[in-house]
Design goal:
The protein is of the alpha/beta class and 243 residues long. Helices cover 35% and strands 25% of the residues. The chain has a 6-stranded mixed beta sheet with strand order 7-8-9-4-10-11, with helices on both faces. Strands 1, 2, 3, 5 and 6 form a 5-stranded antiparallel beta sheet that branches. α2 packs parallel to α5. The longest helix is centred in the C-terminal third of the chain and has 16 residues.
């Protein structure tokens, strides 16, 4: 079963075709790597699927629901969440509160006034320990290092407990021990039968993590298959690896 399917999806910006009639399928419960050279349309595709920018044409199916547009405020309804290349946190809130605001009711009024219960704190503790941030729980998010901020954003995405996760370059700029934390987090999501779409440039990560890899070039599908198949494809080597 497919978690996501795009049908002739397109997006242009002032004449530049960022996504060009793209039709792909992302299997449910798997980790799908999304790779391609700079400007190939990877982030634009995620932005389309999470409602950050509108479609220019085409449709998508999310968990079987066909949509001709996706609004950012609706993505949680379809069981979708994401991280960004530029980390987005509640800067003036503590690390712990960044988790608790997600773990409680998600409409604005309830999130502000619902009292946190013991099970919310237990969930937040587990999530923060998984990303080695429990000792930082009382620090404001703005005081964290770059890598710690990325780990907090990933923990907050996991706290949403949705079906589909988009991670946009989650390993960029991380130290090796932090990279291992992200790898373990994504593996736990797969073990829980969640769907993960991973935009990544590091070929070692692509060899290790994804079950399936989709390669974009100039907004079009260039190749897809297992990591081994894709990374041995001459078209991919020419377009992406430059070898």
């Amino acid at each position: 079963m497919n978690a996501i399917e795009t049908r002739h999806l397109s997006k242009h910006f002032d004449g530049v075709q960022a996504v060009n009639g793209l039709s792909i399928k992302i299997e449910k419960g798997k980790v799908t790597g999304l790779i391609g050279p700079n400007g190939s349309g990877k982030t634009t595709l995620i932005n389309l699927l999470t409602g950050v920018v509108p479609f220019s044409g085409g449709t998508v199916l999310i968990s079987g629901t066909e949509l001709s547009k996706v609004a950012a405020f609706d993505v949680a309804v379809y069981g979708v969440t994401r991280t960004f290349q530029a980390v987005r946190l509640f800067e003036q809130m503590s690390v712990l509160d960044n988790l608790l605001v997600v773990l409680t009711e998600r409409n604005v009024f309830s999130a502000l006034f619902e009292r946190h219960k013991a099970h919310h704190y237990a969930q937040a503790e587990e999530l923060l320990k998984n990303v080695n941030l429990w000792d930082k729980r009382d620090e404001n998010a703005e005081n964290l290092s770059y890598g710690q901020r990325k780990l907090l954003e990933i923990a907050r995405a996991v706290a949403m407990d949705v079906e589909i996760y988009f991670f946009d370059e989650p390993f960029a700029g991380l130290f090796p021990e932090m990279r291992r934390v992200v790898v373990d987090t994504i593996k736990r999501l797969r073990d829980a039968h969640k769907t993960v779409v991973l935009v990544e440039h590091d070929m070692d990560i692509i060899r290790e993590l994804p079950d399936h890899v989709i390669v974009l070039d100039a907004g079009k599908l260039l190749a897809e298959g297992t990591p081994q198949e894709v990374l041995a494809d001459a078209r991919v080597i020419e377009a992406y690896l430059g070898d």
